[in-house]
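Input for the complex:
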Amino acid sequence: MSITYLEAIREAQARALADDPRVFIYGQDVGAFGGAFKATKNLAVEFPGRVLDAPISEDAMVGAAIGAAIEGMRPIIEMQFADFSTAGFNQIVNHAAAFYWRTDVPCPITVRLPCGGTSGSGPFHSQSMETIYAHYPGLVVMTPATVEDAYSMLLEAVAIDDPVIFCEHKYLYYHLKAEALPKEALPVGKARIARAGRDLTLIAYSAMVHEALAVAEELATEGTEIEVVDLRTVKPLDTDTVMASVARTGRVLCVGEAWPWGGVTAEVIARIASEGFDLLDAPPQRLNAKDTPVPYHPNLWMVHRPTSQSIAAAVRQLLRR
Amino acid sequence: MLPPGQPPDRNPGTLPTRERAVAAYRWMLLARILDDKFASLYRGGKIHGGVFLGRGQEALSVAVGLALKKGDVFAPLIRDAAGRLAFGETVLDAVRTYLGSPLGPMRARDGNVHRGRPREGYLPMISHLGAMISVVNGTLLARRFKGISGTVGAACLGEGGTSTGAFHEALNQAAVEKLPLVLVVANNHYAYSTHESRQFACRSLVDKAIGYGVTGHTVEGTDLAACLEVLDEAVNCARSGGGPQLVVAQLLRLCGHGEHDDAHYIDAKLRASRDGRDCLQVAAEWLRKCGWADTATLAQWHDEAVEKVETTVAQVQREPGPDPFAENWRALATKHLHGAYASA
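Predicted:
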């Protein structure tokens, strides 16, 4: 048997619904239709009355999830695309994120964001939103890169007492497969060494982990050993694992599919520069998408975001310094 | 007679009309005196941030608070001191929040009108107008999931808040889900300084009820008797399965948007109109006419309310303020993430 990243998300939701009567799913087309990407396929049949189609009202979807969470429920909100979560932004960042701090009452909602670029999706169906949500205190931001993490981290997202922004990458939905669902997992908040190496640390998360691994594979044939760190959650950020890796290699490149200004890669590099400057043999580097909206045509899209080719070029340049 | 500071029995079916009217009036009076005290403290530089009063809106507000029962959900807005007290908020909670006491429900982390006790169905507003309505919807959905029936959720808003997308999304959502939501819109004609003519173009805001497929009610917001009747009707209708109710009241705020605002922009003709009446005076006159209170009784209630407010303010002013070194500075409830998050 093999299971895709998308199926793992579906299976995690099925298990959450089966294990916990407080869980329900609310989003556009999630009911009988099974979701725009089929992440809730058959769940409305298996769990009658607990998978609700929402009107096209992202603000009210999140608002209702907050109200339900106050009453002790564990809602999962599916945004049809991460990009549309901006229409529910106020409820996420001003209401859900601040609720526990203000009231001492937890607000355990999970907001699933199908994020990241796929060819032909254009400016409004391709965005990576982790940076903007990580900026707000009170949110946990998960960016699973593997089938196993998609499954186990989604279960943990539902279980923890805080609002979670769950960034699931659309490109990985069908492309990524595993033999089976995981029996155990690293805890949330811990990064993972996806590949060990000694010459350079390549830090990535979500779909970029796979580009980074491809680069490591390619450079291994040239005798260069790249260590790949998968952040898994971008907030909280596992600085310990990052620093330990930089201490081993002395060189670091952080890669993100999101835009360059501010953001996750900037945060990682800032921390390394301030806390691990003495560990470095070369200036810490980062690579992001170009600072334009995400383009529609594949010819443009292919070079808008980092790829294994552009990452490999940046790595080679950094190794020469 | 119900002493100020203690919630009355909120079951409308069990209170005779006189007791209900007296209870409503006394909460209104207490709210007015509490608001006046906050204004005074503000002018004396004793309050951090703004002060927002419900002067002129007490009759409508108290009717919402009194129509709700224990177990219902209430999301008041900035001019709902009366409704909050009637719903069960203590004067102590209100004063502690305004004065930033760490002993209050918001523990000095949030202040003034942003107060509540969510576990008791009393939701603390955020500033973004219309945002509370869908949250009330969510509490009602949760109760449906849990098989709890017979509870109602009320949210308050001004006419300005009806222009937001949040209002539209939430009222439509409540209608789609047939939730027992009572949405109370106080049309006080001005959203801060902006006249309603720049806010909406329909004949009356209650016409929006038709578009959403919900029941609409109108009420003269300066008339306590009318407010009690209409809010009871709306809440009872929602409670008995009638779906969302939109209540639109006409009134005028008899103060600025906040105490920093002199409200010079309010049309003098409007001030002189029925909407510009002081609902507290109208209510006192009603009690007098019905023979439910004489001048001496009204004076006694006034003095008791003043005593309650002054005693509470004096108590809170003796309490220590928040200590930044004792604050845990943690935005997450999940304890095992505290370590990593603190350095985040």
